[in-house]
Amino acid sequence: MSDSSTAAAQLRATVESTDLLLHTLRELRPEDVPAPSALPGWTRGHVLTHLARNADSLVNLLNGARTGQDIPQYPSAEARDAAIEAGAGRPLAEQVADVRDSQQRFLDAAALLDPEHWSAEVKHRSGYVFPAWQLPVKRLAELEYHHVDLNAGYTPAHWPEDFATAEFRRLGGHFGALAGLPAVRLIAEDAGLEARLGDPEAAPELTVEGPVRALTGWLSGRSDGDGLQVHRAGEGLVDPRSALPQLPPMG
């Protein structure tokens, strides 16, 4: 699949993901916005404002890919944080409109790119460089993960299978390359996939099995391991979640 075709497919996925998010927001009450989210120190208003400003930041990178200019994702880390803080306390209707309208700005900016633009390199706010076709992939991840973070009824079990499968592969590879983790074998039964954490030469201390959504939920820090089965030396554990290793934040 070409870079532009991959981008187009992921753009369609962000539309579906945004529609699901807006459906959740229609069920919220005004007093739900300042309530705590699942992210420490952030209210639901912080999460929603972050999602809107993230869309605008990706517009900057899309414009950079199209024009060849080095346009930063955010003016600065301080400006990013200040914008999230400034918008967190807004009323529900304003938050919903901002999420909807910023996503449309993202789609409109993407529509201006010609096929060759999707191969251009852009720079993430943390400094690493990646091809522009990954921008819709990153937007989809922001939408799906932070929809769960709202703590408003949307869970990893609701994730699209394609998203959960792709993230299982990505996170399995990410954590598999990190030193210091115990050797763990992960088996996504429904997707027919496996991954290894820790030393690839060591015999696994644990085997963790379950649906790909549940495994991705745990790998991403969005679940404590609910729905997973954990075995040590072939024996199933009575309290499997307590045996799972503590993972660093996902990359």
Short description:
With 251 residues, the chain is of the alpha+beta class. Helix content is 49%, strand content 11%. The longest helix has 24 residues, at 3-26.
Question: What features would you describe in this structure?
Answer:
With 251 residues, the protein is an alpha+beta fold. Helices cover 49% and strands 11% of the residues. A hairpin with a 5-residue loop joins strand 1 and strand 2. It is globular. The mean pLDDT is 95.
Global mean pLDDT: 95
* Poorly predicted parts: none
Query: What proportion strand?
Result: 5-15%
Give the biggest beta sheet: 5 strands, mixed
What's the number of extended β-strand segments? 7
* Number of DSSP helical runs: 8
Shape annotation: globular
- Helical content class: 40-55%
The run of helices and strands is: HHHHEEHHEEEHEEH
Structural class by sheet pairing and helices = alpha+beta
CA-based gyration radius = 19 Å
Distance between the termini: 25 Å
* Strand numbers in spatial order across the main sheet: 4-3-5-6-7
Which terms would index this structure?
alpha+beta, 251 residues, 7 strands
SSE layout:
Elements: H1 3-26, H2 44-67, H3 77-87, H4 92-111, E1 121-123, E2 129-131, H5 134-149, H6 161-176, E3 184-188, E4 193-197, E5 206-210, H7 212-219, E6 229-232, E7 235-236, H8 240-243
Parallel strand pairs: 3-5
Antiparallel strand pairs: 1-2, 3-4, 5-6, 6-7
